[in-house]
Amino acid sequence: MNPMTSMPETWGALGSALLTFILFQDMIRRYCPPELQRYLEKWSIKISGFFNPYIQISIHEYLGNHLKPHKAYAIAEAYLSANSSKDAKRLKAEMGKDNGNKLMLSLDEYEKTTDEFEGVKVSWISGKTSPPPRPMLSYFPDPDKKYYKLKFHRRYKEMITGSYLEHVMKTGKEIQARNRQRKLYTNGHNMSCWSHIVFEHPATFKTIAMDPEQKEEIIEDLLTFTKSRDFYARIGKAWKRGYLLYGPPGTGKSTMIAAMANLLDYDVYDLELTSVRDNTELRRLLTETTSKSIIVIEDIDCSLDLTGQRKNNKKEKTSEETEKCKKDTKEESVSKVTLSGLLNFIDGLWSACAGERLIIFTTNYVNKLDPALTRRGRMDKHIELSYCKYEGFKVLAKNYLEIEAPHPLFPKVEALIEEVEITPADVAESLMPKSTKDGPEKCLLNLIQTLEKCKELKDRDQQDRVEYLEIK
C-alpha cells in the first residue's frame, strides 16, 4: 500500500472522528439534564485519568471563593522566579511585592517551564481563570484568578508530594526573605490593627557609639539566638528573647533597636500601649506579629500605669519625669491594658504563638519599673546604654568627620570626655558640621568647647555641694 495515498485517508478518518466527538459533546450539552452531564463528566475524567500517566497539582492565587491570598502561591512564585529563566521563553517582569526597588521575573500567562529534582523532571504551567460576567451595575469586577500547575509522572507521586514540595516551599521562603523589604509596624492613633511603612533606618552596630567589648557581646548574643531553634525546642521554651535597654535620654536606645533589626533582617513592631483598648485587643495585636520580628515597647515606665511602685512614689518624681510620662487623659481612660495582661503574653501560653522574636523594652528610669517586668525569663538580657566615653567618641568622629586616631586634638577630647557626663547625642550634635565651610578641626574644637563647659558646670556643682555641706 502506498503511504502517500493512505495519508489523506488517515487525516480524513481522524477529522471525521473529531467532528463526531464535537457533535456528540454538543448534543450532550444541549439535550442532557445537568445531573447527567455532571455524571458523564465525572466518568470521562476517571477514564482519561486511567490512560493518562501524569498527575497535576494546582496552586491557586486565592483560597476558595474569597480573595484571601494563598501563601503557597506566593512561595511558589518566588521559587519559580529564580528557576523559570532556564527554559521559559515568555517571562513577565514586575516590581517586587515585598521589595518595590527590585524587578522580579515570573512566568507569563500560559507559559511552561521544567524543573529537575533528584533526577526527576517536572513541569510548571502558569494560567489564570476569568470570573463570570457580573451585572452591569457592578463597578468593581472580580479580578482574574491566577494559578500554577505542577505536572509529573504518577510513578514519582510520593517523592513529588513529599520531598520536592518541601524543597519548593523551603527554597521559596528563603528567596522571599532575601528579596523582601523590612517593615516598621505601628498601632498608633487609636488603631486596633497594624499599619506599616518600609523600614529604612541606616543604623548599624558599626555606627553605634559604645564600648567595643559590649558591642561584640550584644552581637554574639543576637546571632546565637537566631541559631538556637533546636535548643529552645529541646529545653521546652518559646523561641523568643527579651532585652531591656535602659539609660539616660540620648544614649541611643532607639538606634540600638534599629541596628538589631538591620543585623538580623527583622521587621519591627512598635507597640503603643496607650492606643490599645484592653488585654483582648493586646493579645490579638501581638498574635498577628510574625516570626523574625522585634516587638518594641518604648518608655515602658510611661506606658499606662503598669507598675505598682510608681503610684506610691509620685511625690519623688522629678519635673523631667513628670513631663515625659504625661499622657493624654482621654487615651489613658480608654485603655484597660493591665500588667498581668502584658506579662501573660511575654512569657505565658501566648508567648509561643510565633517563633524567633525579640521583645524589647526601653526606659530612662530602670529603678521605676516593677520587678515583674524586668526579671530574668522576661527580660533575659539587660543592656545599659550610658554616657559617651572615648571609644564611643572615636566611632562618632569616624562617622561624622571621617577621621581616626591619631589626631592632634584627640588627646584633649579624651582627657575631657572621661571627666564629664555627656550623651552620644550631644557629642554627635557638636561634631555635626554647621556649614559647608566647617572642617574636621572646627567640629572637634566645637566638641572641646562643649566638653569644657560641661566640666565647668560639674566643678561648680561639686563646689556648691561642698559649701552646702560645710554650712549645714
Automatic annotation (TrEMBL):
Basic and acidic residues compositional bias, start-end: 315-330
InterPro entries for this protein: AAA+_ATPase, AAA_N_dom, At3g28540-like_C, ATPase_AAA_core, ATPase_AAA_CS, Mitochondrial_chaperone_BCS1, P-loop_NTPase
Region named Disordered: 311-330
Keyword match Thylakoid: no
Keywords: ATP-binding, Hydrolase, Magnesium, Nucleotide-binding
AAA+ ATPase domain ranges (all copies): 239-389
Annotated Pfam families: AAA (PF00004), AAA_assoc (PF14363), AAA_lid_At3g28540 (PF25568)
UniProt record similarity statement: Belongs to the AAA ATPase family. BCS1 subfamily.
The protein's required cofactors: Mg(2+)
Molecular function terms from GO: ATP binding; ATP hydrolysis activity
The keyword DNA damage is annotated on this UniProt entry: no
Name of the featured protein: AAA+ ATPase domain-containing protein
Reaction catalysis annotation: ATP + H2O = ADP + phosphate + H(+)
Gene Ontology biological process: response to stress
